[in-house]
Specification:
Mean pLDDT: 91
Order of helices and strands: HHHHHHHHHH
Number of strands: 0
Low-confidence stretches: none
Largest sheet: none
Structural class: mainly alpha
Strand content: under 5%
Number of helices: 10
């Protein structure tokens, strides 16, 4: 039991610091010398980066946010899975993935090295969903893509993931601990999109375009 909690804390710390490596901030601030958070929505995420800068460096942002999620979750599974107490009746791999995924997203959203001003966690969160289970990924990504393509509101598709994640998590695992972790993750995503949700309700949210805005 003690080993489990020691490993859980270690995984949380590692996953958090992995999450802090925000691709949009790193590329814009240290390569382009123009912090993405001073443009557009002020968000340190892929959509705002693409709208502001466009170009091939967008791929670097994508790779950074995907790879950090892969490292965080797989390291978490490797360190934590074997120590999950069997009497708990929890899928050890799933618990480890949700736990490390949660803290990776916290790091992405609130990076200590960037004044706790990060992104909204959709790209990294989508990567985490793929690692967790194909059924989780299918529902989360499916809802995101359908809503985004039909409406061209990336924020609407993104916000939907905060709702669908707990639902599909319960349907797949039927475990209250994992469900609670998924609710926390979903809640964080919705919280980070609260301004977008407000603009959607007011009818003045920006639609996505493949062409970056002309200054």
């Amino acid at each position: 039991m003690d080993t489990f909690w020691i490993r859980a804390v270690a995984v949380a710390a590692i996953a958090y610091f992995c999450g802090c490596f925000n691709g949009a901030v790193i590329v814009s601030k240290y390569i382009l010398r123009d912090d993405v958070r001073t443009h557009g929505s002020g968000n340190a995420g892929l959509t705002n980066f693409y709208r502001t800068f466009g170009g091939p460096l967008t791929l670097v942002v994508i790779l950074t946010d995907v790879l950090k999620a892969v490292v965080a979750v797989y390291v978490g599974i490797w360190l934590m899975k074997a120590s999950v107490p069997s009497p708990w009746g929890i899928d050890p791999r799933a618990l480890s993935a949700y736990w490390s995924g949660l803290f990776c997203l916290v790091g992405h959203m609130f990076p200590c090295m960037f004044q706790f001003k990060g992104g909204k966690g959709i790209l990294s969160g989508g990567t985490i969903a793929i690692i967790i289970d194909w059924r989780v990924a299918l529902v989360v990504w499916g809802g995101f893509l359908i809503l985004t393509i039909l409406t061209r509101y990336v924020s609407l598709g993104s916000s939907s993931t905060g709702v669908t994640l707990p639902i599909i998590t319960w349907m797949v695992y039927h475990n209250w601990v994992i469900l609670i972790l998924s609710i926390v993750i979903g809640g964080l995503i919705l919280w980070k999109h609260r301004s977008n949700i407000g603009r959607l309700l007011a009818g003045n949210e920006s639609k996505f375009s493949l062409h970056k805005k002309v200054k």
